[in-house]
Amino acid sequence: MRDIVYDREAAAAYAKKWALTRNPAFFNFENYGGDCTNFTSQCVFAGCGVMNYTPQTGWYYKSSYDRTPSWTGVMPFHAFMVNNRGVGPYMREAGRADMLMGDVVQLGTASGRFYHSPFIVRVTPGEIFVATHTYDSYMRPLSSYVYERIRYLHVEGARGW
Questions:
Q1: Per residue in 131-140, pLDDT tens?
Q2: Model confidence at 37, in pLDDT bands (50, 70, 90)?
Q3: Residue 82 belongs to what H/E stretch?
Q4: Which among 46, 52, 49 is positioned nearest to 87, based on CA atoms?
Q5: Which of 57, 58, 120, 131 sits CB 3.0–4.6 Å from 19 for a disulfide?
Q6: Domains of the chain
């Protein structure tokens, strides 16, 4: 296995191109529970270029019916990214101060159910700006969201063969 440097610029460029529209190579899950994590997965993939094809527990997308839960589900995305020791991207939970363009935030309820996965496209000392699907936006201030819990996911890199 080899280390892959995560290309934050490529991931952010992908987000800019597709935040307000849809890449026809990927199904739009907006009417099936939301498209936010699908879009964020696409952005992360644009930055690393590698998927993990392990059935059920990996992180990949071949089609709307041939994909892992972690590609489109908020909670499975988190579980894969912070626990991945194999091929594909990997992340760690971090603090707001560790966030960079190309990282991910997840918003949740007080009970701990996380429901939204915005992709970070810009970080300034006073604000984080995100791109997302479902409620399509680009350069939306994170402070404009209403949420009870937040977790920050810092992309550490990826692994490939």
A1: 999 989 999 9
A2: very high
A3: helix 74-83
A4: 52
A5: 131
A6: 2-160 (3.90.1720)
